[in-house]
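I had to read the description of the data format several times before I understood it. In essence, backbone conformation is discretised, so a fold becomes a row of integers matching the chain in length. I therefore recommend that a typical entry be quoted early in the introduction. For illustration, here is how one protein appears when written out as sequence plus structure tokens.

***
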Amino acid sequence: MDYNRLNFTAQDGTIINVYKWGPQKDVPGRGIVQISHGMAEWAHRYDSFAKALNQAGYTVYANDHRGHGLTAPCIEDIGYIPNDDGFTHMVKDMYELNEFIRKDHLNLPIVLFGHSMGSFLSQRFIQLYGENIQGLILSGSNGKQGPVINLGIMLAYIEMKLKGRKHKSRLLNKLTFDSYNRPFAPNRTNFDWLSRDDRQVDLYIDDPYCGGVFTASFFYDFLKGLQLITRKRNLKAIPKDLPIFIFSGSMDPVGLFGKGVERLVDMYQSMGMTNLSYKIYPGGRHEMLNELNKEKVIEDIIVWMSSM
């Protein structure tokens, strides 16, 4: 159940790093899980989750998004995407990986799993390529953003124009990630908001591919993408019968402590989605796969996929 490293060349020539975890030969294959990871992390962090899915019969694929992990040309380039509209390029990379998976596993269902930033990319994916998957799981997500997003876009645009696309935006980092940590004061670390499990938080802090300050252009493209995914004409393109499972911790600041998740559910229900369920775990923070009750969370995910 060890992983293999693969890569593919995207249409614009960018080499995308991919991990594949496969079940042992004596485990019957039940399906494929394609993972879309969050901002300021990388796909390798999903190793434990992938191996648990392998034991249940699922093959797992996960790519490092542009500006992340081993897809970034070097560690100094983490947080920077040279292309305009990096959000759209990341979604297209997910599509190209999905096409590869579908050709390699013709008869198995594919479930897309998106966490945090990856959940928002996944929300866009189902608007463009929803027929390509048989289920969607969103972790640490949110619905329509409030008007404050316009301020973030304006600040990112100004910094980008004054200091360049590659400028590391400590201002926007402070306004976003630092704000997530305030509800957990007094803080042990800058990343207490990720999990109640101190060991997992420390592993994140010690990982050179995690927690960096991202560029003004990355923030600009990402925030613009958050606006894009809640436009009515885009929501109407989602297949109405696509099975969707959304989960979050009740203390996840990204999901507004449960309110943002309920807002996302309401948004999908208003569009006529017919196969939608969600669960909020009491006390859980942002990374439920790295929480104190992670075994229960993973069990719930596998049960949901089995019942699709």
In short: DSSP finds ten helices and eight strands in the chain. The chain has one domain: 3-144+229-306. The CA atoms of residues 152 and 183 lie 21 Å apart.
